Every structure is written in C-alpha cells, then in structure tokens.
C-alpha cells in the first residue's frame, strides 16, 4: 500500500479537470470508433482501465488532447497525450507519492530546492530539458506519448506511442496523394464536431499549415471563423494572411505590436503568472502570441467561449526536418543520428566539451530505447526524438498561451490519422515535403487562388543556400549575427526581449545574445528567475 498518496490537479485554465471514481481527466478525445468524449464523460472512457495493460490500450487509441490519472488499489496510473498538451509532474517515491499538473505542488511537498547544473546547460542550449528531467533535481515529467505506473517503491514509464517505423507504404504517389486528401475530411469533421458551434480564432500566418486549416473550414462550410495575425506592421506574413482570409470570406484582425507591447509589461501581474505557467521548469516560454491573445481577450472583441486554433505542425509531418537532419536517410548509425540531433537541436547556446559529451550520450541512450528493431528507419528515429522532445516541449507547448487566458485550443493537423499516415510515408515523398506541399497547393489552394508568387515556403535552391549559411554561421562576426536577427524581426522580438535584458541587468546579470533568434534572451532570463527563486 501507499505511504502517503497525493494527487494534486489545480490547473483549470482553458480545460478544467473532471473527477469521477478516482479517475482524473482533462481535455477531449475521439475513441477508435469515432465517439467524442469530453468534460466529465471523458472519465467514462477510462473506467475500464483497471490495470496497466488496459490503461495502455485505452490511451494508445485515444485521439485528442488529454491527460489522465487513475488511482487504483496499490498504484497510480497516469498519461499525457502524444503531444504532452497538459504536462504532469512527479517525484521519486519517498515519504509521499505525489503527482500534479503544477510542479510547484511537487516541489513544496518534497522540499525540492536545488536546480540541476547539467539540466540548466541543456535548457540554455536546446530551449528544453530532455527526457523525463526538469531544471529541478528529483522533479520529473511524464513524456509525450508515455504513461507511468507509480507504486510505493517505484515509478515505471512506458511509451505507448512512437513515430519510429521499420516499414513504409508501398502505394504509388498518386494513391498516397488521394489517401491524404481523403483522410483530411474526417480529420476536419472531428475538429468541427468538437467545436460545438463555437467561434474559431485561427492564428493565420503566411505559411501553408494554417492556410490549409482555413481552406478546410471553408470547404466544410464552417463560417464562424476569425483569422488574426500580429507583430510589426511590416510583417512579411501580414499581407498573405489578410489576402487568404479575405478570399475565403473570413474576418481578419491584425494586432500591431508597436501599439500593444509596452515597456513595463514585465511588471504586469498577468505576465508574472504567465511565464512560470508556460515554462514549468522544462520549456522556454513563448512571448510571440502572448500579446496578441491578451489583446483579443482584453478588448472583448471575441466570444468568451472561442476556441483558438494553430497550424502546428503539418510541415513536420510533411517532412520539413528531413532537409535539416544532416543527411539522415533510411540507414544511419545511432552515433550519426545522435550527433545530428545535437548539432541541429542544441544550437541556442555554446556547449562546452564536457556537457557536449553528456548531451550526446543521453541522446544516444534515448534513441537506442526508441528503436523497435534493427530495421528501424534512421530518419524516423530522428523524427521521433524531435516529436517527443523539441515539438512537444517547445512548439506544442507554445499553445499553453491560449489556455492561460481561459480558452480551449485545437491542433487539427496532429490528429492521430494524419500522424499515422505520414509515419509510413516513403522518404522520397517526404523529402522537401513533396507530397504534402503538392496536395496543398494543387488540390486545396489552387481552387481558391491561394498560391502566391512570393511564398514563404523555401525552394530547393533556397534550402541548399540556407544549409550552407548554417554551416558558416558560427564563424561569422557578432555584428553580422545581430544584423540578420534584426533584418528578419517581424514579430517585434527585439523590443520585447530588450525589456528582459534590462530587467536582468538590474540584478547585475548579463545576458549573452547568441544564435539566429532572440530565444536565448528568453531562456537566460527565465533561468535567472529560477535561480533567484531557489537562492532566496
């Protein structure tokens, strides 16, 4: 039996928790027979899960955004969805068995007051803490696509979903193109069904993913849609976003960050609550959409029950990372895959040799554990790491901004049906997003005249040029780095992060700007706040 059991679920923003018969759930799912479970009815879906085998079966078939905790007679079972939408935290069994959606609950209950120096370096370099670890010693998280079984003496983690594959479809390009088109319709019918008539707030960029969502909503006659864009008025995505919305007959709003971002935002109580909520000792918190969503809420221009929607991450499924992964194709050694991940995904902060070797060994171990058999395809091993680490904790985690302000959100392009389809799409059809882009442009965009001459999607030649630039980038002078950051700063990142830099300087802490983006400033500022907290 337990020593002391504590299940503490306190985060009810956006999606509230529901509790029934020792089952704790939040979010929504579609079952394998396409039945929607949400609110307290979601508990009913998990009632048959009275052992770990049935629990794994249930979560592996669940299609949606969810977290679940079940208290059994001598154990606790917990899981997050494939995207880690609603994080769960725990510590190793001691005097307590505790699991919570709020890491502060675990920290205070277990008197965890030390940061981990190695994990700090990892966070600064990648923008995340990898695996089950966090910035805090003995504070752990349930990983994307995983469940845990906790007893009085142990915690076992089991991955119920993997993007690693040892086989691919043998269908022709034309047949796969047709299958992709056919899959999109039930995917978006599920999306629309889950809205229950509520207004969609679509973050419409200049890229393909959010444009596909807008087109599919139009095809399926869902008209209660407000599209929005944000940033600097000279944002190069603004005109494409506006044109797409207008051609589809949707409302469109632009949030001018020169007007809504104020130099004292750091003292705003909302911001002070937001950044620890979004970071959770694991991820860089995003500020890109924070000001836009706050403005939309504060201006009372959208319904209180609106549902936000983002295009994460159709391009990943289509194969966008295959042009960045260091030429990892069907076959590659574990060491080559690990070194490619280290080079590409740990690039925000300079790594010393000792930590570099530690990171590399951890990546090797992680990908070794993900391999299903010797025939596992190398590029899928790379993509699986990316999905469970960088996308889950960095990209998908950015959507917490919607929940923070009290709204639900949807990520329709990560529906299980689409993920499973692209998992086995042949490499040659994923490279340069060949099939994905072709279907979007020719089948869905062309009828609405939504293909543009100056697309933001890079050509093959542009990709080769960018890869060359990436190789020489570390050797260029800092002035060149600064010029390029400012040249492409259409979201007002420079002004936003200047506030953080000045705040750190008040404490005598000097932020070092490195890399291609302004993200390192956010990472260093956040880590400085964590260190201050635990030194008090």
Which features characterize this protein?
536 residues, alpha/beta, Glutamine Phosphoribosylpyrophosphate, subunit 1, domain 1, Rossmann fold, 3 domains, 7-stranded antiparallel sheet, 5-stranded parallel sheet, 22 helices, globular
What do these coordinates show?
- This protein is of the alpha/beta class.
- It is 45% helix and 14% strand.
- The strands form three sheets. Strands 2, 3, 4, 5, 6, 10 and 11 form a seven-stranded antiparallel β-sheet that branches. A five-stranded parallel β-sheet has the order 14-13-12-15-16, with helices on both faces.
- Helix 4 packs antiparallel against helix 22 and helix 12 packs across helix 13 (353-370).
- The radius of gyration is 23 Å and the shape is globular.
How many structural units, i.e. domains? 3
Principal-axes geometry comes out as globular
Structural class: alpha/beta
CATH class division of the largest domain: Alpha Beta
Number of helices: 22
Going by CATH, the homologous superfamily of the largest domain would be: HUPs
Strand and helix layout:
Blueprint: E1 5-8, E2 18-20, E3 23-30, E4 36-38, H1 41-46, H2 52-61, E5 63-71, E6 76-80, E7 89-90, E8 97-100, H3 103-110, H4 117-126, E9 140-141, E10 146-150, E11 155-159, H5 173-195, E12 200-203, H6 208-219, E13 225-231, H7 238-248, E14 251-256, H8 257-260, H9 269-279, H10 290-298, E15 307-309, H11 314-318, H12 334-345, H13 353-370, H14 378-395, H15 400-404, E16 408-410, H16 416-423, H17 427-430, H18 434-445, H19 460-472, H20 478-487, H21 493-506, H22 519-535
């Amino acid at each position: 039996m337990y020593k002391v059991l504590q299940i503490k679920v306190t985060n009810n923003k956006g999606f509230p928790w529901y509790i029934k018969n020792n089952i704790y759930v939040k979010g929504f799912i579609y079952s394998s027979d396409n039945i929607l479970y949400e609110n307290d009815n979601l508990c009913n879906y998990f009632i048959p899960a009275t052992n770990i085998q049935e629990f794994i079966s249930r979560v592996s078939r669940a299609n949606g955004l969810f977290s679940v905790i079940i208290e059994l007679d001598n154990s606790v079972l917990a899981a997050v969805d494939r995207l880690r939408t609603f994080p769960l935290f725990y510590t190793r069994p001691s005097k307590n068995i505790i699991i919570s959606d709020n890491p502060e609950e675990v920290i205070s209950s277990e008197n965890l007051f030390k940061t981990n120096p190695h994990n700090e370096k990892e966070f600064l370099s990648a923008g995340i803490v990898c695996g089950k670890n966090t910035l805090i010693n003995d504070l752990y998280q349930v990983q994307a696509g995983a469940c845990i079984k906790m007893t009085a003496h142990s915690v076992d983690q089991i991955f119920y979903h993997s993007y690693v594959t040892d086989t691919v479809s043998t269908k022709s390009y034309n047949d796969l193109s047709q299958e992709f088109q056919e899959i999109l319709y039930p995917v978006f019918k599920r999306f629309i069904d889950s809205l229950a008539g509520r207004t969609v707030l679509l973050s419409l960029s200049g890229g393909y993913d959010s444009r596909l969502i807008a087109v599919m909503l139009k095809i399926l006659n869902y008209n209660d849609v407000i599209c929005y864009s944000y940033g600097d008025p000279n944002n190069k995505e603004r005109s494409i976003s506006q044109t797409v919305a207008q051609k589809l007959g949707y409302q469109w709003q632009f949030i001018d960050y020169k007007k809504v971002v104020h130099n004292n935002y750091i003292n705003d109580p909302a911001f002070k609550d937001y950044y620890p909520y979004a970071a959770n000792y694991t991820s860089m918190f995003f500020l890109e959409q924070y000001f836009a969503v706050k403005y939309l809420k504060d201006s009372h221009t959208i319904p209180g029950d609106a549902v936000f929607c983002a295009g994460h991450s159709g391009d990943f499924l289509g194969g966008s990372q295959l042009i960045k992964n260091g030429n990892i194709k069907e076959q590659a050694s574990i060491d080559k895959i690990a070194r490619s991940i280290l080079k590409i995904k740990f690039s925000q902060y300079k790594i010393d040799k000792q930590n570099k070797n530690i990171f590399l060994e951890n990546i090797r171990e992680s990908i070794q554990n993900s391999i299903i058999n010797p025939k596992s395809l190398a590029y899928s091993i790379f993509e699986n790491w990316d999905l469970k680490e960088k996308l889950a904790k960095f990209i998908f985690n950015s959507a917490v901004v919607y929940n923070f302000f009290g709204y639900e959100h949807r990520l329709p392009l990560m529906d299980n049906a689409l993920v499973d389809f692209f998992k086995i799409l042949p490499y040659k059809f994923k490279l340069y997003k060949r099939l994905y882009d072709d279907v979007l442009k020719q089948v869905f965009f062309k009828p609405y005249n939504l293909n543009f001459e100056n697309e933001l999607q890079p050509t093959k030649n542009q990709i080769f040029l960018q890869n060359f630039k990436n190789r020489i980038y570390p050797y260029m002078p800092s002035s060149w780095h600064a010029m390029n950051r400012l040249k492409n700063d259409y979201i007002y990142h420079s002004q936003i992060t200047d506030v953080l830099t000045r705040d750190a300087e008040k404490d005598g802490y000097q932020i070092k700007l490195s890399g291609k983006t302004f993200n390192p400033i956010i990472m260093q500022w956040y880590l400085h706040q964590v260190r201050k907290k635990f030194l008090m």
